[in-house]
Amino acid sequence: xxxxxxxxxxxxxxxxxxxxxxxxxxxxxxxxxxxxxxxxxxxxxxxxxxxxxxxxxxxxxxxxxxxxxxxxxxxxxxxxxxxxxxxxxxxxxxxxxxxxxxxxxxxxxxxxxxxxxxxxxxxxxxxxxxxxxxxxxxxxxxxxxxxxxxxxxxxxxxxxxxxxxxxxxxxxxxxxxxxxxxxxxxxxxxxxxxxxxxxxxxxxxxxxxxxxxxxxxxxxxxxxxxxxxxxxxxxxxxxxxxxxxxxxxxxxxxxxxxxxxxxxxxxxxxxxxxxxxxxxxxxxxxxxxxxxxxxxx
Length: 297
Fold this sequence. Notes:
This protein has helices at 31-47, 51-58, 62-70, 78-87, 92-105, 110-118, 130-151, 154-170, 172-177, 181-194, 215-218, 223-241, 245-256, 264-268, 272-289. It is mainly alpha-helical.
């Protein structure tokens, strides 16, 4: 069944909703589940459709659709999820990837996932917006470097970055409506990376594992010296993680990821002047804690 187009509203006109908005997402819904469910719910609310309208477009009962929109009960199969995605005119490709990741989180077997997908006639190939493609090509490497600094795992870093760009595709209208799309994208990437990063008892993120991948400690002449250097770097990186968020980002990108200072403003979506100020304050704070460290220009 091909869904009829979502009725357009006049510029500045709020959606005409005859029903009530969906109830909050259940607390039992997992993190990966919420990752795709929240954009779907946002699209549903923005569409102006009621749950009865969605019943007519999807072919599923109101009870089942209400449970899907709340993340209630068993993890939903791809069949019903796909019906809602198509009814709301949401890009299928990125949503399917996020759905599969959440199915793994929900401990669904590969066979269950494969069979659920097989039951659905695949949609025609979709292409993301050209601007989204350009952003992905420009930011994939620095985003991945940032993710690696915290997660110390190529697989986990790749997953965080891929999830970021899939969500951006799903919410591209929102991203481009923001005052600064690169800033919007960076904040999303930061959230996805740090949500996977453990915290220290003091509350800041644990960056100490990055000490094991530094060149300086690998070049130590013996094990004792290597362990000593690891200890120093671990304490230094722990101090970096305790900086305010934007100072931490700039410091990680420049000194842990080796990204040129001129490239950092475009990555984090801030002006060169603001980025320079953040870098200056971060280096000063670190110098106060580690006077012998090379943090001054």
